[in-house]
Amino acid sequence: MKVIVEYLLLIILGVEIIIGSLGNGFIILVSIMNWGKRRKISTVDKIFTALAISRLAFMWSLVIVLLIYELYPSLGTSGRILRISNFSWTVVNHFSIWLATCLSIFYFLKIASFSNSMFLFLKWRAKKVVSMTLLVSLLFLFMNLKVINAYIAIWIDGYKANMSYSSDPNDYGQFPRLLTLTNTMFTFTPFIVSLTTLLLLIFSLWRHLKNMQDNNKGYRDVSTTAHIKALQMVVTFLSLYTIFFLALVMQSLKNDIHLKSLLNLIFDGAALGFPSGHSCVLILGNTKLRQAFLSMMWWLR
């Protein structure tokens, strides 16, 4: 039974990789084609393109790391391989999450409506706010890499000092748990930022609808539609992000060695659902991407 479940999970992982690769590749292709036609690219398209590139790198770096540790487990004790694999995964995961957070911030600043002077100041400088957010996130990335490097250095020293002790599966299992827990802690900040933008968007929509009712206007207008679309995008992003976040937490806390392989497949499947599923949401939620996708499907038919 366990073997059947593992094969099913492997199939799910393969489907997620295919969907994620095609979806993010499609976003990159459409952005490049639009840039070639118009010789300019909007801020949203820049975020979409960078996000799609980071998502592709995230998925395939995860696949490569899994293959290395499954096919060549002895390389897991190499300090160079440990640093390359963990650093590359941390970097692409960082940009994948923070670029999506920047997209939520950009939608919030462009669509929400508040009379607060601070909000108006940020709204007029939405591009700079996104750029500064991404720049500040590099500080978190630097701190994350420093902590991971310290963990790797300590583990390598212990492994060299006592080969027999460090090679024990139970002791070695502590190492990836510490790394996963560290990455989970550093993904909590963008999650809170995205959640805050969602709550503020809901409050902005509530105020907008209240003002329309007081003025005896219709229920739907351009602003209301924009609010609802932005909320759908952010809610879906946060839902997938929550699953991804919980998968990281559970992976850092798991202790059952006998079900280690099965649990890893479950958590990896939940993690890959974030970049692959969100790319589909972006395509369906963006008018330009949706029209390009429908045109492609019509051409294929």
From TrEMBL:
It comes from the Eukaryota. InterPro entries: TAS2R (IPR007960). It is a multi-pass membrane protein. Its main location: membrane. Keywords: G-protein coupled receptor, Glycoprotein, Membrane, Receptor, Sensory transduction, Taste, Transducer, Transmembrane, Transmembrane helix. The chain crosses the membrane at residues 6-35, 47-69, 89-109, 129-156, 185-209, 230-250, 262-284. The keyword Secreted does not apply. SUPFAM superfamilies: Family A G protein-coupled receptor-like (SSF81321). CDD domains: 7tm_TAS2R14-like. Belongs to the G-protein coupled receptor T2R family. This is Taste receptor type 2.
